[in-house]
Amino acid sequence: MYSEKVMDHFTAPRNVGEIDNADGIGEVGNAKCGDIMKIYLKIEDDVIEDVKFKTFGCGAAIATSSIATEMIKGKTIDEALQLTNKAVVEALDGLPPQKIHCSVLAEEAVKAAIEDYKKKNNK
């Protein structure tokens, strides 16, 4: 049902945790399935220096959070804003149709964290 990459990111997620004094924090949730994702960004000169996440949800939600953080770390804000749920799904070698919403949450959480950063910094 799940690809090896999904299982890898679920059983050994990358970038788990919180960043104290994060420059941007994005939290999104899906009431229907109960998944909640929170992304923390540390940004310097418009580059994402560090990113962490905390996700409450199913294996696919954890895997999409994990890979999304890997995909944006070291990128500029503008590059990170280009992240799509489709790119997250492709990076995980696919998700079952009923789990695609998890990749949408990952995209939304990243964008919410960047929006939070922009608001805090009048950008």
UniProtKB/TrEMBL annotation:
The gene is nifU. It comes from Lutispora saccharofermentans. The lineage of its organism: Bacteria, Bacillati, Bacillota, Clostridia, Lutisporales. It comes from the Bacteria. Residues 1-122 form the NIF system FeS cluster assembly NifU N-terminal domain. It holds the Pfam family NifU_N. PANTHER family: IRON-SULFUR CLUSTER ASSEMBLY ENZYME NIFU HOMOLOG. This is Fe-S cluster assembly scaffold protein NifU.
